[in-house]
Design brief:
CATH topology: Alpha-D-Glucose-1,6-Bisphosphate, Chain A, domain 4
Number of strands: 12
Largest sheet: 10 strands, mixed
Number of helices: 7
Oligomer: single chain
Order of helices and strands: HHEEEHHEEEEEEEHHHEE
Shape: globular
Strand content: 35-45%
Radius of gyration: 17 Å
Length: 253
């Protein structure tokens, strides 16, 4: 049962990152004020749950939900560029998120010119029999502060977008926020906040009991994957106003 829940919650936690790259110029979905308030990094409602080495996990009750939200805070000994590159790689989910088996850019119909800062992504996670796999389509919005070099990535499920994967149960209510802050050249503060309403019939007490180990494991994996040359060599592209416009791997032609 623990392995089952790890498989399920890893999808919940993932939808999040590894779905980046250009997708659409359509304006991002408007986030409910409830989400903005409860996924506030500095809220006093966060309760410290566990600390392991360089990672601390906090949890909190989420209004009008039986499922808790979590916040992971870590100091990762890698550059902000390499961490951002892993999170923004649309295929990286299986590399660092447990039981994630597929992720890629999701392209909407009748899209205009692709835009890195506002895109869509798809992810699929494995669940052992007799349960179906879970999948999710999210709107990914990236922003940055040129004065502090802080990068923020928000990911929100789009209720109007459902995949054509009939073998998976579709999650339609998930909100994630990532914050990356450079501490020094090769050290980054990584903040990951998330709340998801799981699809299907799963007891809240069981899901809530599993939201500690998965962000711990995934954050450790993130640090290790960021060491790969592909991500070490990645370059963030900026416009004349120092706003993020894209990501380029130096191995690309």
């Amino acid at each position: 049962m623990n392995q089952l829940m790890r498989s399920f919650i890893c999808l919940i936690f993932f939808l999040q990152p590894s779905l980046a790259f250009p997708e659409t110029t359509s304006p991002p979905n408007t986030q409910p004020s409830n989400t903005d308030t409860q996924l506030n990094e500095h809220s006093q409602d966060w309760q410290q749950s566990e600390t392991h080495k360089n990672i601390t996990i906090y949890t909190r009750h989420y209004k009008d939900s039986n499922f808790d939200a979590f916040k992971a805070v870590a100091k990762i000994d890698q550059s902000i560029e390499s961490i951002f590159a892993v999170i923004s790689d649309p295929t990286s989910c299986p590399l660092w998120v447990d039981n994630c088996i597929e992720s890629y850019n999701y392209i909407k119909h009748q899209q205009e010119k692709p835009q890195f800062k506002n895109r869509y992504g798809y992810a699929l996670s494995h669940l052992p029999w007799p349960f179906k796999n879970r999948d999710l389509i999210v709107n990914i919005v990236t922003s940055n502060n040129p004065d502090t070099n802080e990068i923020t990535i928000t990911m929100s499920s789009d209720k109007d977008l459902i995949s054509d994967n009939e073998e998976a149960v579709h999650i339609t209510d998930s909100h994630t926020k990532y914050i990356l802050r450079p501490i020094k050249k090769n050290q980054t503060e990584f903040v990951w906040m998330q709340h998801t309403e799981p699809a299907g019939k799963l007891p809240a007490w069981l899901v809530n009991s599993m939201i500690i180990s998965l962000p711990l494991n995934s954050t450790t994996n993130l640090e290790n994957i960021a060491k790969l040359k592909k991500y070490q060599d990645a370059m963030i592209e900026f416009d004349s106003q120092k706003q993020i416009q894209g990501l380029k791997f130096r191995l690309e032609n």
